[in-house]
Design brief:
There is one protein chain. By secondary structure, this protein is α/β, with parallel strands linked by helices. It folds into two domains: about 260 residues, Spore Coat Polysaccharide Biosynthesis Protein SpsA, Chain A (Alpha-Beta Complex); about 80 residues, UDP N-Acetylglucosamine Acyltransferase, domain 1. The protein is built from ten helices and 26 strands. The strands form six sheets. Strands 5-4-1-6-10-7-11 form a seven-stranded mixed sheet. Strands 12-15-18-21-24 form a five-stranded parallel sheet, with no helix packed on it. Strand 4, helix 2 and strand 5 form a beta-alpha-beta unit. The mean pLDDT is about 90.
Length: about 375
């Protein structure tokens, strides 16, 4: 049951402001040392998938710089390996779409030149650690054309407008994709497995609808396409806006989530490594429930926050419910509450900035305030 992987990174997401102005959502920094695409890539290679294609956007500079030829994921190889493929502009500009048919059609050679039985198709901006082997086995045994992965989640504001929920019959067949449900919902995780030959036929059937998202078309043709469902029961961090980014970063400080996602020796999360000196804490520093990365100098108070590499936090400063990305320079007596600072941000002495959990303040790359 040979399986290849196809990751869509050609989408921008809405509500990220300056954070995605010059980068794709897939290359957004997360958790002090990772990028969001690390999870999609690691899930695949940890499941034995050694041929992975990434559909990239026009602003793929940061993505290319991060993944290179795929060496951190052991994808720099002669057979198979990592394929970085161009996407269309549609996927970048359309807010809710993840899998524009034109993107797949434009790179159909990735499917035609391989003899794999199946292809796992995934988005690139969610945080979870999943073993795909049970999914592959379940799909092969089902005999269906496609199997969609879902997570049972309570329906509410957290899921509103963030994709599809599945209606599943007693035989495990997906009978509807819905944007609105009530109570507990079968939330589609933007990952599926499909027969490779079916995907090629799908492109032939619906190639004229190249401007549409693949799952919008599947939703309208479930009477013709045999789609099954597979439940994922682990932690799933959905990142659709800056409020999600803050909340899912806080998951790094939850021991249960951290152990599941990052501490499984059989399924490590790989990333591009950068060597730094250990964190330097002064006697006056105060750290509570936070993630602090190597290379930092901390003289102030940090609470419920994520601090990336090589950040300086001055004496008397308070960083609370915030994310400070690489090489930030926070002066003395600064207060940042529900703030996300991009790379190389400089905050002068005495500055106080307050956001909220629902609407954090974004400070763009290399800004000085």
């Amino acid at each position: 049951m040979k399986t290849i992987g196809l990751i869509s990174a050609n989408y921008k997401g809405e509500g990220f402001g300056e954070l995605t102005e010059n980068r794709t959502l897939a290359s957004l920094p997360y958790g002090g040392r990772y990028r969001l695409i690390d999870f999609a890539l690691s899930n695949m290679v940890n499941s034995g998938i050694t041929t992975v294609g990434i559909i990239s956007p026009y602003n793929s500079g940061s993505l290319i710089d991060h993944i290179g030829i795929g060496n951190p994921w052991s994808l720099g190889r002669k057979r198979g390996g990592l394929f970085l493929m161009p996407g269309s502009l549609y996927g970048v500009e359309t807010g809710g779409d993840r899998f524009i048919i034109r993107d797949i059609l434009k790179n159909a050679s990735f499917l035609t030149r391989d003899d794999a039985d199946f292809v796992i198709i995934s988005s690139s901006s969610d945080v979870y650690n999943m073993d795909y082997i049970p999914l592959i086995e379940a799909h092969a045994q089902s005999g269906r054309q496609m199997t969609m992965v879902y997570k049972k989640m309570p329906r509410g504001e957290d899921l509103a407008g963030k994709g599809y929920c599945l209606e599943i019959d007693d035989k495990g067949k997906v009978t509807a994709l819905m944007a609105e449900t009530s109570g507990w919902s079968n939330y589609f995780m933007d990952v599926c497995i499909a027969n490779r030959e079916f995907m090629l036929r799908f492109l032939d059937w619906f190639g004229a609808l190249e401007y549409r998202d693949m799952f919008d078309v599947i939703r309208d043709n479930l009477d013709k396409i045999d789609v099954g469902a597979f439940e994922f029961r682990g932690y799933f961090g959905k990142i659709s806006n800056t409020a999600d980014l803050l909340q899912v970063n806080k998951g790094m400080t939850d021991y249960g989530i951290r152990n599941e996602v990052f501490c499984n020796p059989a399924r490590p999360i790989f990333t591009k490594t950068q060597d730094e000196a250990p964190v330097f804490y002064t006697p006056d520093s105060d750290i509570r429930n936070s993630t602090i990365s190597a290379g930092c100098r901390i003289e102030g108070k940090v609470e419920d926050s994520t601090i990336f590499r090589s950040v300086n936090i001055g004496k008397g400063s308070i960083i609370r419910n915030s994310v400070i990305m690489m090489h930030g320079d926070i002066g003395e007596d600064v207060v940042l509450d529900n703030v996300i600072c991009d790379k190389y941000v400089k905050i002068k002495d005495g500055v106080k900035i307050y956001g909220t959990g629902d609407k954090p303040i974004i400070i763009g790359k290399e800004m000085t305030i």
